[in-house]
Amino acid sequence: MTTAGARDLRVGVLASGSGSNLQALIDAGVQIVVLVCNVPGAKCLDRAKAAGIEAVVLDHHAFASREAYDLALLAELKKRQVQLVCLAGFMRLLTAKFLAEFTHAVINVHPSLLPAFPGIHSARQALAYGVKLTGCTVHFVDEGTDTGPIIAQAAVPVFDGDDEARLQARIQVEEHRLFPAVVAAYVQGRVTVQGRKVTTR
What we know:
Layout: E1 2-4, E2 11-15, H1 20-27, E3 32-37, H2 43-50, E4 54-57, H3 66-79, E5 84-87, H4 96-101, E6 106-110, H5 122-129, E7 133-140, E8 150-157, H6 164-187, E9 191-194, E10 197-200
Parallel strand pairs: 2-3, 2-5, 3-4, 5-6
Antiparallel strand pairs: 1-9, 6-7, 7-8, 9-10
Helix pairs in contact: 1-6
């Protein structure tokens, strides 16, 4: 059994797109020391700069392999002594080498009630399947696609008139509430991990 987190952790965020979950963390007062983005020109970079957070572009196209990219990513995070990594729409799988350096210290938010609808286009998957409830999940990251231990979840109803955009917008409201709350609990040392079971006190 391990208790994840401690006060005054140095938090790093990885993102690839608009950065709405990054913004939720910023608005909640999470102390972020660096944003690393793999997509030059992504909006998340502007959000970081507006908040006075160091923003680093590390374009994955410049690397020959996932392993090479993750080694460079590790170097950037270690240079800033990052202790907790938050994935806020980071559209890449992390390698075993990277994850071994951050055991129970990489957290992701995903727009479905995992293990249902992993991967991309989760709201579209939920609509196609005809579920009545979907939602979002904050989980630890492992080598699989959205398969790590679940920390917290929030349910969102699926309405008859929903399209993907409408459903995704409602899911994001819950993401922006749940993700910062989990990160705060982790930083405060209130998250306990035992195998796949995660308890937050």
